[in-house]
Task: inverse folding
């Protein structure tokens, strides 16, 4: 009985740990305000034991659970459906940094700790936690793990999957699996943690994690380079890799429409280019040692490559200004209006052909399209977004047709329709078109084994 469940839930709750009615409104809508649902309540545990008690209670009464971190999902992965027969489990009170182990280069945190807090705790120990993206101040580690988030430093350090050594997870029946091991080598059977990274809370709820830290780089060199084409950008990347190897921390591709949107909506952000180029690359090197030496090395390499319109940051303030251009692109798009967004990955060498062909295919059917392409060229991840003349939600009427153009070409290049944002609600119906029947069978088998009642974040990832 639902009334019995709510009565037991209330008896569990401490003050301020359970929300009902209007107090749940902010939790029921995603940050893009595209998905809005309803919930019985928002439960906010402050320990893994409390989390396990909630899950046990939900399993007993067959109540679906929607896990939510910082609510920064771009695919509706943390938003409930319209039935109102679920509860949201918020991790905002599970926000403790458990341990920083500088000798082992690890940090152990609860799922509700923000990415920014992890970065700051690492810095205080003279270490680096390299994951970084625009929502660092609000996104939580549990959500970052659940979506296998990426960001600007994946080229050197990898996604959240590569940054994770151990997990603690509450399973669908409330059992706590403790895999909090900070080991680089552990060959004792299946690597269970990998099941939960990227699963978007559909297999279990991540409660704590052991994450990798790295020595803190002491030298940085940042540059903005105008290029004529994405092919030139790929050539530059290969030249740099041949000369400086993994010291390339970030390598971002930015198109002219991005710069135009920045100029329109953030005129105070000054670009160093006298005339906005068709394409440009924002890149950063990092290492130990002296920044002046790295600066001179980067400047010399860029001079040798022959790219004339090049700006190497003279100091940290100028480097920060360059990065502010990149970081404000998503907000400039939001201010411009509603767009169709794609978070795709393609083999790096195929990106130039993809961009040329995809633009041609789109313009044939949508001659009014303004394509805003940018992203992490170094690891093959593009954010391929477009506006039509009507910049309202009416554009979603064209979404399926536009997605078909983009995703069919992505599939042609053996790419992925989701690089770092996940599947959520947005792409679950599309997933079956671009993963094989064998892959989907295996996914559903794992889901059935770990969540036989289908209570863990239903309606996400799998149909």
Result:
């Amino acid at each position: 009985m639902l009334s019995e469940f709510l009565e037991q839930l209330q008896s569990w709750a401490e003050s301020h740990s359970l929300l009902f009615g209007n107090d749940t409104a902010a939790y029921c809508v995603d940050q893009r305000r595209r998905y809005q649902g309803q919930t019985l309540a928002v439960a906010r545990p402050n320990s893994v034991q409390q989390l396990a008690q909630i899950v046990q209670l939900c399993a007993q009464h067959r109540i679906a659970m929607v896990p939510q971190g910082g609510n920064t999902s771009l695919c509706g992965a943390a938003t409930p459906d319209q039935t109102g027969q679920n509860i949201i489990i918020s991790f905002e009170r599970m926000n403790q940094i458990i341990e920083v182990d500088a000798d082992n280069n690890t940090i152990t945190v609860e799922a509700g700790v923000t990415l920014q807090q992890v970065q700051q705790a690492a810095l205080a120990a003279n270490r680096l936690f390299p994951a970084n993206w625009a929502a660092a101040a609000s996104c939580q580690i549990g959500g970052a793990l659940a979506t296998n988030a990426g960001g600007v430093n994946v080229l050197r350090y990898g996604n959240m999957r590569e940054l994770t050594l151990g997990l603690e997870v509450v399973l669908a029946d409330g059992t706590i699996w403790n895999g909090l091991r900070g080991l680089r080598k552990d060959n004792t059977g299946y690597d269970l943690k990998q099941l939960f990274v990227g699963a978007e809370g559909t297999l279990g709820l991540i409660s704590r994690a052991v994450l990798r830290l790295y020595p803190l780089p002491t030298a940085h060199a940042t540059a903005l380079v105008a290029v004529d084409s994405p092919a030139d950008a790929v050539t530059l990347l290969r030249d740099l890799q041949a000369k400086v190897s993994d010291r390339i921390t970030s390598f971002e591709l930015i198109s002219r429409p991005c710069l135009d949107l920045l100029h329109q909506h953030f005129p105070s952000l000054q670009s160093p280019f006298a005339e906005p180029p068709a394409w440009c690359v924002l890149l950063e090197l990092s290492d130990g040692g002296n920044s002046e030496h790295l600066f001179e090395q980067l400047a010399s390499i860029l001079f040798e490559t022959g790219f004339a319109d090049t700006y190497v940051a003279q100091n940290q303030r100028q480097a920060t200004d360059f990065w502010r251009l990149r970081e404000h692109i998503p907000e400039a798009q939001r201010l411009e209006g509603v767009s169709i967004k794609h978070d795709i990955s393609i083999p790096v060498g195929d990106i130039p052909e993809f961009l040329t062909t995809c633009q041609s295919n789109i313009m044939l059917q949508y001659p009014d399209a303004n394509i805003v392409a940018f992203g992490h060229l170094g690891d093959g991840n593009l954010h391929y977004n477009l506006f039509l003349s009507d910049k309202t939600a009416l554009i979603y009427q064209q979404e399926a047709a536009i997605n078909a153009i983009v995703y069919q070409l992505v599939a042609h290049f053996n790419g992925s329709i989701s690089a770092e944002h996940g599947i959520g609600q947005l792409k679950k119906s599309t997933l079956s078109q671009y993963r094989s029947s064998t892959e989907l069978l295996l996914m559903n088998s794992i889901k059935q084994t770990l969540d036989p009642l289908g209570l863990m974040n239903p309606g996400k990832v799998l149909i």
